[in-house]
Amino acid sequence: MKNLFSIGEVSKIKGVIIKALRYYHKMGILIPRHIDNTTGYRYYSIDQFILYVSRDKGKTWDYVKEVKDDN
C-alpha cells in the first residue's frame, strides 16, 4: 500500500481543488505529512484522508482540527 500521496492525487481522490488543499495547509487544518525541500511538493498520508472524510461526513473544521491535535 502506498504511504504518501501527492497533492494532485489527493485532489483527484477526494474531489477537492488543489488551491483548497493549499489553503487548508495555510490555515493549519490539513498539514502535509511531508514537504519536499527541493520542489516544495506536498505529500499526504492515508490517516490524513480519514480526517478529511470526517469533514465530508458533516463534521466542522474545528472538530477535525481538534481530533488532529489530540492525535
TrEMBL record:
Biological process according to GO: regulation of DNA-templated transcription
Signal peptide range: none
InterPro entries cross-referenced by the UniProt entry: DNA-bd_dom_put_sf, MerR-type_HTH_dom
One family name in Pfam for this protein: MerR
Highest rank taxon of the organism: Bacteria
A GO term, aspect molecular function: DNA binding
Residues annotated as domain HTH merR-type: 4-45
Designated name of the protein: Transcriptional regulator
Organism of this sequence: Paraclostridium sordellii (Clostridium sordellii)
Gene from which this protein is expressed: bmrR_1
